Amino acid sequence: MVRQGSWGLTSSLMLAYLLTLVPLPHWLDPLRPYWVALVMVYWHLEVNRLNHLGQAFVMGLILDVLTGSLLGQHALGLVIINFLVSRFRSRIRFFPAWQQAIAVGALLFNDRIVQLWIIGLLDRGWPSWSWWLPPLIGIAVWPWLFLLLDAARHRQRQLS
Question: Residue 149 CB: number of other CB atoms within 10 A?
Answer without folding.
Answer: 18
